[in-house]
Structure to design on (126 residues):
């Protein structure tokens, strides 16, 4: 059973930090791109960041570049999202996702990803 389980969300004040974790199980994801998406109330799911476990390539949305850092721990089969300098606009449900890398894939689009976690709520107060 393939599972992605997010944790680490919560309520923080603007300017604060959180670290989200995505624990994977059920298979190895060495050929997959791991990503974080977020969805705020009334908005579509938005790409945040992605990392290729095999090559270490990283991608960030412009809105989080310089503030968020995606990383992975292969031994723990876990991907992280370190979020610093949080803003109220970062408030959303954050989802972990995994998609198989292939020619022409678009890492910023949700349909690329086959596996999804249940989401974890991040709320940033002003």
């Amino acid at each position: 059973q393939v599972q992605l389980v997010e944790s680490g969300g919560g309520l923080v004040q603007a300017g604060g930090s959180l670290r989200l974790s995505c624990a994977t199980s059920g298979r190895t994801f060495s050929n997959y791109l791991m990503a974080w998406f977020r969805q705020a109330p009334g908005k579509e799911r938005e790409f945040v960041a992605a990392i290729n476990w095999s090559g270490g390539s990283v991608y960030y949305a412009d809105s989080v570049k310089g503030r968020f850092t995606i990383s992975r721990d292969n031994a723990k089969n876990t991907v992280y999202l370190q979020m610093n300098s949080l803003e109220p606009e970062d408030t959303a449900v954050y989802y972990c996702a995994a998609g198989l890398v292939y020619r022409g894939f678009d890492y910023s689009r949700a349909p690329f990803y086959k596996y999804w976690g249940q989401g974890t709520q991040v709320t940033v107060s002003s």
Q: What stands out?
A: The chain has a mean pLDDT of 95. The radius of gyration is 14 Å.
